[in-house]
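Support request from a user on the community tier.

User writes: "When I paste my structure tokens into the form, the page sometimes reloads and wipes my input. The last time it worked, I copied everything first. Here is what I submitted, just in case something in the input itself triggers the reload:"
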């Protein structure tokens, strides 16, 4: 038996707001990424700020050649984030690929889909963060091989940083990088810091270093910048959130200045 149910049209259309949330950040991340989304939900997303994600193809192992292969996917990846709508910032969340592809090339590829949006890379955000902390001498810890670490060492040196110690863990699979235990990150961070360095940079958006950055700082007595901590900080500041959150690390107490 069919029951006829009366459906009534409302007498007026609903009032629409300009945006569901006041600010919105896009993330272009690797298909294999376990960490960036989790970190951004923990550090960035909130009642006024939404985080929207697009994944692009990536095939291990982590080598300069494989990292470079992602460049053609960046425009399409960015275009799939809230199509035809503006973003307040967009992150390409791969540190080693940012070095190989180049910050400016990444910005150009993303602007082809999202013109005018501020583009954040882990490398550029880390540089800005280290400068905000007053660091000129740094130590660096990466999960990569020597081959993949070499371009990163050159990147920081060419930007004027003195690298006192550069340590790499020799991994080639970003999924394994995501499984490095937090206490192991702390242990390797202790070893990676040269006493004369002003700060320690821990590379790789896959590594769960942001969640232990403040704890590492307490152990080593120096500021710590990680890939995801740096991009989260940059995005918050670009969205007008200047609140100090020292529980996340010293970087989250600093103002953001581009350039």
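"...and here is what came back when it finally went through:"
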């Amino acid at each position: 038996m069919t029951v006829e149910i009366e459906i009534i049209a409302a007498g007026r259309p609903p009032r629409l707001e300009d945006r569901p949330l006041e600010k919105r950040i896009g993330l272009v991340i690797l298909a294999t990424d376990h960490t960036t989304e989790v970190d951004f939900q923990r550090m960035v997303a909130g009642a006024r700020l939404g985080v929207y994600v697009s994944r692009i193809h990536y095939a291990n192992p982590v080598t300069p050649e494989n990292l470079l292969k992602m460049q053609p996917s960046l425009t399409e990846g960015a275009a799939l984030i809230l199509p035809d709508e503006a973003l307040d910032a967009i992150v390409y969340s791969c540190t080693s690929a940012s070095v190989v592809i180049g910050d400016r090339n990444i910005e150009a590829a993303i602007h082809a889909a999202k013109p005018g949006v501020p583009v954040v890379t882990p490398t550029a955000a880390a540089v800005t963060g280290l400068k905000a902390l007053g660091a000129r001498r740094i130590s660096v810890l990466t999960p990569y091989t020597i081959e993949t670490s070499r371009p990163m060492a050159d990147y920081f040196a060419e930007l004027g940083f003195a690298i006192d110690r550069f340590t790499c863990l020799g991994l080639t699979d970003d999924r394994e990088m995501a499984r490095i235990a937090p206490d192991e990150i702390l242990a390797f961070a202790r070893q990676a810091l040269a006493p004369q360095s002003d700060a320690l940079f821990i590379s790789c958006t896959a590594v769960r270093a942001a969640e232990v950055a403040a704890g590492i700082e307490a152990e080593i007595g120096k500021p710590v910048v990680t890939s995801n901590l740096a991009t989260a900080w940059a995005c918050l500041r670009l969205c007008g959130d200047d609140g100090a959150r020292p529980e996340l690390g010293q970087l989250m107490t600093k103002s953001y200045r581009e350039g």
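Agent notes: The reload is a front-end session timeout and is unrelated to the input. The radius of gyration is 20 Å. The mean pLDDT is 96. Escalated to web team.
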